[in-house]
Structure to design on (299 residues):
């Protein structure tokens, strides 16, 4: 997919490869080939654009690998008969990408939203390779008992009308570009976030991600998030940086507590005046701190 709009702070040339036969994944590979690897995984309904400023702040020294998940961003958006839109598929795709790039050693894992489930899901097989963590408004464990699924997500997950709104009028991506921040996005930034999701067909993944939210037995991703939750505390011996916008109606203080309990030695930067897209609201504060964290904790 090509976006014919200005992409602020995104001066990159994305690369592509067939992550599955006939299905191309777009990804960024920025920085020196011999640099320490930082794998940045976005969620729904964003794309690699979310990580753009961090890439710009790291690529002089660090090798930044930033995929657009299948169906998202600039990657292909196949129909259901060509691709299974499940968490396991996303995990497998990350493994295929890293294999394709010949990345076999240690990495820093940076995650946001569904990127947590995908990244820590990859970690179920490769935990020893994850040597540092950057965690932003995400989850990698079952929905906390104290945190019910918001009605709007349940509506999008379980109802035909919810699916119609997400795919028909881009309700999820468009709304997130407003309610996901406390400081209104500049118009060109907001347009860049929603640009990949411009037709019914191109919104398939934004809907399928919502439908894949695991709430209990019988949901395809449930065994994965249970396993991730059990394993999370095993990362407590590794440097971790947590950045959190507390004005997130999904990944709120309950999810933050899940991470701080499991990673008690993490650097935590939580903001009462930031939302889900914490790197939009607090880039000026967070980017130098993230760079300092990586520089101070070499692989």
């Amino acid at each position: 997919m090509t976006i014919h709009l200005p992409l602020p702070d995104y001066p990159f040339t994305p690369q592509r490869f067939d992550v599955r036969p006939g299905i191309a994944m777009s990804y960024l590979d920025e920085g020196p080939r011999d640099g320490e690897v930082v794998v940045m995984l976005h969620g729904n309904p964003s794309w690699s654009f979310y990580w753009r400023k961090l890439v710009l702040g790291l690529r002089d020294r660090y090798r930044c690998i930033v995929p657009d998940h299948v169906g998202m961003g600039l990657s292909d958006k196949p129909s259901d008969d060509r691709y299974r839109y499940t968490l396991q598929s996303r995990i497998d795709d990350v493994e295929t990408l890293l294999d394709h790039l010949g990345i076999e050693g240690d990495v820093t894992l940076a995650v946001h939203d569904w990127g947590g489930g995908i990244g820590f899901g990859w970690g179920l097989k490769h935990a020893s390779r994850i040597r540092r963590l950057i965690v932003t408004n995400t989850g990698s464990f079952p929905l906390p008992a104290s945190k019910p699924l918001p009605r709007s997500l349940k509506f999008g997950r379980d109802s035909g009308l919810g699916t119609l709104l997400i795919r028909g009028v881009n309700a999820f991506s468009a709304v997130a570009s407003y309610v996901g921040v406390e400081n209104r996005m500049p118009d060109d930034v907001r347009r860049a976030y929603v640009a990949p999701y411009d037709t019914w067909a191109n919104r398939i993944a934004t809907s399928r991600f919502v439908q894949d939210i695991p709430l209990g037995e019988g949901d395809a991703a449930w065994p994965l998030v249970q396993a991730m939750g059990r394993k999370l505390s095993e990362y407590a011996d590794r440097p971790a940086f947590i950045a959190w916008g507390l004005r997130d109606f999904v990944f709120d203080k309950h999810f933050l507590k899940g991470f701080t309990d499991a990673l008690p030695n993490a650097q935590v930067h939580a903001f009462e005046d930031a939302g889900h897209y914490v790197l939009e609201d607090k880039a000026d504060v967070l980017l130098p701190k993230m760079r300092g964290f990586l520089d101070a904790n070499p692989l």
